[in-house]
Amino acid sequence: MAADAGGNGHSPLAQFEIKPLISIQPGGLDLSYTNSALFMTIGVVLAITLLMLGTRRRALVPGRLQSVAELSYEFIANMIRDNVGQEGRKYFPFIFTLFMFVFFGNMLGMVPYSFTYTSHIIVTFGMALVVFVGVTVIGFMKHGIRFLGFLMPTGIPVFMAPLIIPIEVLSYFTRPVSLALRLFANMTAGHTMLKVFASFVFALGVFGVVPLALVTALTGLEFIIAFLQAYVFTILTCVYLNDALHMH
Amino acid sequence: MPADPPGQSKKDFDARLRAARAKRAERVAGPVGGSQKSGLGFAFRIGTELVAGVVVGVAIGLGLDYWLETRPWFMILFFFLGAGAGMLNVYRTVTGIGHAVGYGNLDRAPQPGAEEQAPPAASGGGKDGNGA
Questions:
Q1: How close is the nearest chain A Cα to the Cα of B60, in Å?
Q2: Mean pLDDT over residues A101-113, rounded?
Q3: pLDDT band at residue B97, thresholds of 50, 70 and 90?
Q4: Which of residues 46-105 of B touch A (CB under 8 A)?
Q5: Residue A19: left if φ>0, alpha if ψ -120 to 50, beta else—which one?
Q6: Which domain holds residue B78?
Q7: Any domain includes B112
Q8: A125 to each of A35, A128, A178, A224, A228, how far by Cα in Å?
Q9: Angle, vertex CA A33, rays to CA A27 and CA A39, nearest 5
Q10: Is residue B16 assigned to a domain?
Q11: Total structural domains in chain B?
């Protein structure tokens, strides 16, 4: 599978290579349309198509596509209601889009020969940064300067402040990094592991059955992880939003 | 209830629906967890929290060093602070306080509603970190 990576042999990391498909370089700026961008486009188009087709008929008794569309809507709507509450409803479009984008990215990655755009930290970090900056802005808009009260937990002696405040600030800045790192690491590690085990299948001859069985099982696991990581990314966004809105 | 006049039953239904919705909206955000706390996923999360703390600390330290030309002192300082923040995050995750910065969830647990009803009073009374 990795052999199509052009001269890079069978490196299990060849699948993450970015290849420009259409070269666009205005003024030395590399804006090429890459395989990553291609799969993002596919993901977005698929998500839009699913929802457009799903909501086209609007039958009282939903068909299959409509069920999928309604399920995904309700899944996110419930997640927001449970984690953010009533005020979170106006952020539904953003959170739903985020979930669909990550989910389709992870799932598209499970198609053989495809590219997993969520396996690049710049993509996940970009999304995490948008969430982080957005949530911080919302927090300051809603609570003003009191939002900084966040950084000094109540009931701590004043002389502890010089130590606690920097740690709390760092802990706050850790959020986008851990959010991005978790999704990126899960996707990269999973896909690399699959490829490494798959490369043992032929190398071991008859005993290749063992890694083959393992790869089969791991593929199932990867599907779970693909969904779970999209879920975790979204729910953490909800949790951060809740923190900013209700300020615990 | 087929005997109800249509207008009456509709109004009654609306009232009940509104009450049910309000009740549902009330239970906001307990500590998250549940499905996430499954073995491997949980271990992975703790790992990333630890790594993220150190990464952020070192990055900020190096940034300050680059700006103030004090290499390596801020990096050393922020390495330890970042490691501390990472451990704090792990502690919060494991004890189920959630991902919130601060300990508001713990404060809130004994007297539910008291803080949520009047957030300005509650926060104004506490010591805020404005002196930071």
A1: 9
A2: 93
A3: low
A4: 48-49, 51-53, 55-57, 60, 78, 81-82, 84-86, 88-89, 98-105
A5: beta
A6: 51-99
A7: no
A8: 19, 5, 9, 22, 18
A9: 155
A10: no
A11: 1
pTM, to two decimals: 0.77
Q: How far is A146 from chain B (nearest CA, A)?
A: 7
> Looking at the predicted structure, is the pLDDT value of residue A71 above 60?
yes
Q: What percent of chain B has pLDDT over 70?
A: 55
B30 domain residue, yes or no = no
Which residue, among B48, B54, B58, would best test binding to A if mutated, counting the most A CBs under 10 Å from its CB?
Answer: B48
Q: Which residues of A touch B78 (CB under 8 A)?
A: 170
For residue B37, the distance in angstroms to the closest alpha carbon of chain A comes to 11
- Report if residue B8 sits inside a domain: no
**Cβ <8 Å between B123 and A166:** no
Q: Torsion angle of alpha carbons B9, B13, B16, B17, nearest 10°?
A: -170
The total number of structural domains that make up chain A: 1
The share of chain A scoring above pLDDT 90, in percent, equals: 55
Contacts of A74 in chain B (CB under 8 A): none
Q: Do A171 and B132 touch (CB under 8 A)?
A: no
Residue A139 is which amino acid?
Answer: G
Q: Which residues contact A58 (CB under 8 A, 6 or more apart)?
A: A66
> What is the domain extent for residue A105?
2-246
